[in-house]
Amino acid sequence: MICMIEKIMSDLYLIKVPIPNNPLKATNSYIIKGKDNNLIIDTGVNLKKSLNTILSGLKKIDVDLENTDFFITHLHSDHLDLALVLATNSSRIYFNQPDAEAIRGSNEWNDELYNIARVCGFPEDRLQEVIKKYSWHRYREIDPEIFTILKEGDTIDVGDFHFKFVETKGHSRGHMCLYESRKKLLFAGDHILSDITPNISLWSYDGNPLKDYLDSLDKVYELDIELTLPGHRSFIRDCRKRINELKLHHKMRAIEIISILKKGRRDAFQIASKMNWEMAYDSWKSFAINHKMFATLETIAHLKYLEEDGFIQKETQGQKILFSIR
Ligand SMILES: [Zn+2]
Question: Which residues have C-beta under 5 Å from ligand 1, the single-atom ion?
């Protein structure tokens, strides 16, 4: 097996942990080696190929898991799950409170997702099938006690690295990044990615994750960063440029939604079906059902944002929510 390990700088390594059959291809797992302890930032999905890759990489750079802690940016299985396998009794798994709660409440999450998708026009007969397909929804029995919960501004030292935790909610309710101010490094998880737009979905109608996300982008914009190390794909040299691109992407989406609503009232599923998605399908009809779900949940996040900003309004008609221009 070719082990995808790369030395980024002294005591900092990257292992590309494969995600089989997934367009993301791999999770970037970063390893910081210290004198007495090591830190692994994000891991990978709990599959044999992924586990073997990370184990052989760790062996190559002499990482002893007995002296190793984990920092997990958010709850998705391609970041968290292998940490649960690799952690030893002496390991700490640093994590955030909102995501820890979301994992605990996975049944409620199921109901919430079901409700929101149904009222927004997602075909009811396909919902169960989609919920089953959600890879990060196949929730594992996790004892919340295993996590060491972190808050904004908490710090941790590993070798020559002095980290600060930065709350960057949006992609998940509690997503966190790690910032090293002296080395000007940001470990960005799925908050900022190089060539894909992080998925921002609305999971319950109380929240406004797109607003959270845009606020978190503004927050990171203020940091002095020379190298951004994301959870997937390639590194980002100019973080501010990428933030501007991501903000522009969401602005264009908002314009697209408003132009669709100018033609009349629609539910979220109908709106999603009319939008341009950067996916390898010829038409909305040929979208896989779980991709239709992603697109609808992302559309709902935009609709909630536009509604709170006063551009559009929603009304309930029978079981459904319809949106129109205000
Ligand atoms: Zn994610």
Answer: 76, 190
CB 12 within 8 A of CB 28: no
How many domains, the chain? 1
CATH number of the CATH domain containing 246: 3.60.15.10
Q: Rounded to the nearest whole angstrom, what is the distance from the C-alpha of residue 76 to the centroid of ligand 1?
A: 5
Ligand 1: centre distance to CA 270 (Å): 26
- Report how far ligand 1's centroid is from the alpha carbon of 96 (Å): 14
Cα(74) to centroid of ligand 1, in Å?
7
From the CB of residue 103, how many other CB atoms can be counted at a distance below 10 Å?
18
pTM beyond 0.90: the answer is yes
Quick check: is 140 in a domain? Answer: no
How remote is the CA of residue 41 from the centroid of ligand 1, in Å? 14
**Ligand 1 centroid to residue 79 C-alpha, Å:** 7
Nearest alpha carbon to residue 7 among 36, 34, 32, 38 = 32
* Structure-block tokens of residue 281: 């399908």
Q: Are 68 and 38 in contact (CB under 8 A)?
A: yes
Categorise residue 184: left if φ over 0, alpha if ψ from -120 to 50, beta otherwise.
Answer: left
**Which pair of structure tokens corresponds to residue 73?**
């940016």
Task: Please name the amino acid found at residue 144.
Answer: P
State the distance from the centre of ligand 1 to the C-alpha of 319, rounded, in angstroms.
31
Cα of 188 from ligand 1 centre, angstroms? 11
Give 10-residue mean pLDDT values along the chain (326 residues). Answer: 82 96 92 96 95 96 97 94 95 95 71 81 83 58 86 96 97 96 98 94 84 98 98 97 97 96 96 90 89 91 96 92 95
Query: Is residue 15 classed as helix, strand or coil in its secondary structure?
Result: strand
Domain of 239, in residue numbers: 5-135+147-325
pLDDT of residue 135: 47
CA 318 – ligand 1 centroid, Å: 34
